[in-house]
# Entry
Amino acid sequence: MTTIPPPVLQIGQVLTVLLLAPLLHGFVVTAEERVQRGTGPSLFQPYRDLWKLFHKELVIPDSATWLFWAAPFVSFTAMLIVPLLIPVLTNYPLPLSDMGDILGGGLILTLAGFSILLAGLDTGHPYGGLGSSRESMLAILAEPTLILVFIGITLLAKAMLPFVVNHLLVAQPAVYWAPSHLFLVAAFFILLTVETERLPIHSSIQWEIYMIGEARILEYSGPLLALLKWASWMKQAILYTIFLNVLTIPWGLSVHGTPLGVAGSLLALLAKWALVALLMVGIDTVQSRLRFYRYQEPLALSFLLALLAIVADQL
Amino acid sequence: MLIFHLDPLASAWFSLLVIVALTLSFVMLGSHWLKNHIWAFAAESWVIAALSVTVGAYGHYPELYAIAVLTVLFRGLLLPYLLLRIIGGLDVQREIHARLSPARSLVLGVLLVVFAYEVSAHLGLRLGLADNIAVLALTAMLGLKLIGFLMMVLRTEAVSHILGLLLIENGIFLGSQILVPGMPLLLELVILFDLLVIVSTFGLLTRYLKTHVGSTSSHDLQRLVG
# Structure
């Protein structure tokens, strides 16, 4: 049996996230429109958007400093690093995947968010400041929960590496179906809605007074905006992948790295993404929008679930 | 007995279902809308039916499948339907005069569950069942009963009182599924019939209260009538 060399697979993991993240976003947007009886844009609209933005002129505000320039590159690079650390296609570690553990990956994701937050404040535009302050209010509650979830996973698997967690959950159904694990899944799912802007406080329309994430990058245009958008879609794809391949559906990954196995795991990944995307669309459609200050309730629930999972694990 | 030699997967399944049932009872404490209470009760009944199926499959008790079907039919479908009809006939959508806010009743519920855990941990230690699924089953059973009592104490609407009663009964049933799974089918039929009588009596009672007092809230029942 011929196997693909690990470095090629590792590059493949990054390319998978890089090239398919816009498709995932397109799927979410189209599915949402279809559910609400609209026609929706084409699945490939995000690619066309990127193409258009990369060919547009770049306009920089007078008040912008180097931070404004750096943020898109920092966040884009961060999103290229994280797929190296997590199981995207294979269930075994590939070269350089021992650079960082679960917490390391979380740190890099947070760094990207932090750089965009600073860029939002940098220009002094009122909407940028508004978006950044709202985003940091959410982050204040979301980050401790994220860390608790990671601690819970670590206590469950007695290791900080996502691959070990994946192997444990596949090997021991008793751990998979234990309440402590499923509570962590529920807590992470709520965090996923926060991080990918699918909470009932986020709006599905982009430019309006209640925007949160979109307000931070309102000043950007042209190629820099394209990079930021691409980075945010990649973040969504990465978080979905962590949620699915590490926690929820650890099956369907390539075990030996044969071409057929990798192709199968790629198809499986697309199907799994579609599943979570449909769940998110369901939540977005069923739950009516809440005012912004209701943001603590789901996050408090998620914190409680993570805490309960840890307590249940230790008893 | 089943609980002494349980493989880890079965144990994980049981504890998951028990904990989900316990969590659903907190939905009742955390909400003041009567419809939410009824949906939570229905969901809890489905979870208990799933538990019956799992216990039946792992412990080889074929009669538990019949019990699961009866549980779904009666507790999961018929009772919620009757209760929804009762509140459909009333013009009350939610608790107005509850004695504690949802947040406080949730905290009180947590304290009661902790108390239930302490009691069952002691019991488990005495019976040589420590580190066993039995402790969890006992905790859930006592916890559900205490939460049911709490519902009846804190809430004023007649429908909430029925739900408190049904919650207590659900707790007993859930515990008995795991602790003594070989319960005869006849006993289960008796319990289900009991529940049906409870709900229909309460239906009559609320109708009576509505025509004679004008309200189904115990908050308004302050005058003794000879």
Notes: The mean pLDDT of chain B is 85. The radius of gyration of chain B is 18 Å. Chain B is about 75% helix and 0% strand. The CA atoms of residues 73 and 79 of chain B lie 9 Å apart.
